Amino acid sequence: MASSVKQRGAAPAPSAPPERGGIAARWAAMPLLARHLLGALAAFAAVVALTSMTDSLTDLRIASIGYYTLAVAGLGLLVGFSGQISLGHGAFMFIGAYTTALLVTNVPMVPLWLNLVITVVASCVAGVLVGAASARLHGPYLAGATLTLAVGLPAVALRFPEVLGGSNGLSFSTRGAPPALAGVIPDTRWQAWAVWLAVLLALVALATISKGRLGRQMRAIRDDESAAALAGIKVGRTKVVAFVISAGCGGLAGGLQAYLLGTATPSSFSVVLSLSLLAALILGGMGSLWGALWGALALVYFEVWGETLADALELESKVSNNLPIVLYGVILIAVVLAWPQGIQGALSRLRRRWQRR
Amino acid sequence: MQSRKLTIAAAGAATLLLTSCAGAGDVEDTGSSELDVAPGVTEDTVVIGSHQPLTGPAAPGYLQISIGAGAVYDYINENGGVHGREIEYVVEDDGYDPTRTVEVTRDLVLREEIFAMVGGLGTPTHSKVLDFLNEEGVPDLFVSSGALMWNQPEEYPLTYGYQVDYTKESKVQGAFIAENFPDAKVGYLQQNDDVGTDSRAGLDQYLSDNVVSQQSYESSSTNISPQMAELKDAGVEVLVCSCIPAFTALAMLEAQAIDWQPQFVVSSIGADTATLMGLLKEFGGENLPADQMLDGMISTGYLPQITMSDDPWITFYRKVHEEMGVEEPFTNTMLYGMVQATQFARALEAAGPEPTRQSLLDAVNSNDFSGPGLVPFVATEDDHAGYDGAFVSQFNAGGTPEILQEPMVTDRGEGPLESFDLERPTPREIDILTE
């Protein structure tokens, strides 16, 4: 930190030859939001570059990593920053997926961006309702309340089969690449770009919030609620805001999933989903958005690797069918035992050790 | 400052570019895809795929289907394959979760490059990949579900049904009950999805005056005591159960618990007696006289049943089961998968020595695959029904089931029930199945 402050003075000198310190200084001098936006742009370019080398199935998986990253990151803000627990984040994905699905099927002319904005608004409203309760509940009580949400909400689809399609859910097609680009860019790749663009913009918002004033307030509440209250932080309101932001991220993730896969079905949003999101968060590491990315990667790819492994080992079908699930569990336990801070925690420890040399 | 503007501009422009063009749900028809191709077909193999619940809540009931199908393919491969090619059957686990169905189906089509999708299982699951398979030009044969939507040749020209659809089957049930229990009070217990609504459409044509209570259940909630109490209180004598096996078993246990003995009439999807016995014992304890509880149960079906020991196909499949060393017991559910595999292998053979997707579809459309089922198997250009009718039988504890009504065919509308002549070949008459 100290070195970057020193370099800041040197940067404006126009005659200074371009050097590494100059770029770093300029970077550090930039406002937070601009830095995050540039980072997001770079990440988007990376996604575009990556997908141009992959097949359509990998594009789909890359896009899945995108929306899972957002869902886990939103949960990370809630759990890692404001210190609240949610066992029901799948419910917000459910709300998001159904909002998008209903918009696509009933008003197909609404463009995607507006669709997603409405989806975020709808899930934020849900977040306000749940968050209002969450401000009064602590620990296991909050966990119980959110768990109820995850168990109960998908049943809404069964209650209104005419509108929400009952247990068979809704299926629909979403628009891929515009006609001008049809044949040049496969639909799935185009959709993967759209998903990642939305995810990155949301992550920029999340990163900016968590580094800013609100993020500091959340951490203060997480560490000591009474101290935070004494310092003038409105504890209840901040907690609700954290919940709303987190719900918005979950909803957007669900909406993007519906957009990508063209389905919204109650059985996809079971308690298992909520718990896997939480597991992915712990695996990836709390307190950093990178952790969400590792968690999402694990969610999508552990299963694929598990299947490949099962095929390679030529195990008995009873064993191989369940191997992916077992593998995920074992790795989760191992990571938590070896690195309680998750993958990101382990990585940053490695980096620190390397820097010290 | 300049770079900040640049960033915002870039992000904004990209957003607009990606999303502003038109409505997210406005999808144009992209026309049909090339069918004169043969991905997955090599010198010595044909790769086909299926999505099945191998894990998760639906696995215990349906796992046997793909095991049965796999055994038949193994048997065919050991006896020379189809036109010298081995059938490579790739089953991917979707856990009955539609989201995963979408993923594994893309995996099958894009990475495994399957020649055809065969017997994809489940209505909530398979309905999510119909569009994809038809757009990609992948023959989607013999879907493992009785929903009506597989038989829409106009909209989904590549998708073909397999089992008798729920409406046709329940018309057979309704007519049978109206004739044999004319004055009985009838109650429905139905799954709250298309199984229920499609079944009701058929039953009501014959029973609307006799029905005294209609109840439905959610497959996610195993407590059906309130529904059963309602049915009992309404004085129901004949209970029509359009249920999956777990709920047939639960209904029987609950009826026993409240000391009520209605006549059960169960759809084929929930009437596999071997599966039911296992479930009854699982839910009600090992000492339960499951055999006795099922005694007298009336059910509809379209395939021969494993207890029909003098049927040549049952003898044949029993042999396949034994020779291929299948560990799981031989049940009607397993038979379902075995017949499905047989029908596909026959179509593949009829597609000729150099099959393409088009020639496979042409072969299927030849409508030339009667048997192993006991009702006609309909597959033409305009009708993708699959098995087209049902018979009614009654379970006898310890004995062979008694056929109460010979197989009848009908339509899904208001047409009559008709009998038919069926030339049903034996396994010996089918080349690919002989040693």
UniProtKB/TrEMBL annotation, chain A:
This protein's UniProt keywords: Cell membrane, Membrane, Transmembrane, Transmembrane helix
InterPro entries listed in its UniProt record = ABC_transp_permease (IPR001851), LivM-like (IPR043428)
Mostly located where?
membrane
Q: Where in the cell is it found?
A: Cell membrane
Q: Where is this region: Disordered?
A: 1-20
The keyword Membrane belongs to this UniProt entry's keyword annotation: yes
Q: Give the transmembrane ranges.
A: 32-53, 65-83, 90-107, 113-134, 141-160, 190-209, 240-261, 289-305, 325-347
Topology of this chain in the membrane: Multi-pass membrane protein
Annotated PANTHER family: HIGH-AFFINITY BRANCHED-CHAIN AMINO ACID TRANSPORT SYSTEM PERMEASE, HIGH-AFFINITY BRANCHED-CHAIN AMINO ACID TRANSPORT SYSTEM PERMEASE PROTEIN LIVM
Name of the protein: Branched-chain amino acid ABC transporter permease
Organism of provenance: Salinactinospora qingdaonensis
UniProtKB/TrEMBL annotation, chain B:
User: Residue ranges of the Leucine-binding protein domain?
Assistant: 45-399
Q: Where is this region: Disordered?
A: 411-435
Q: Which keywords accompany this UniProt record? A: Signal
- Which stretch is the leader sequence? 1-24
Family of the protein in this entry? Belongs to the leucine-binding protein family.
Tell me what this protein is called: ABC transporter substrate-binding protein
In which organism is this protein found?
A: Salinactinospora qingdaonensis
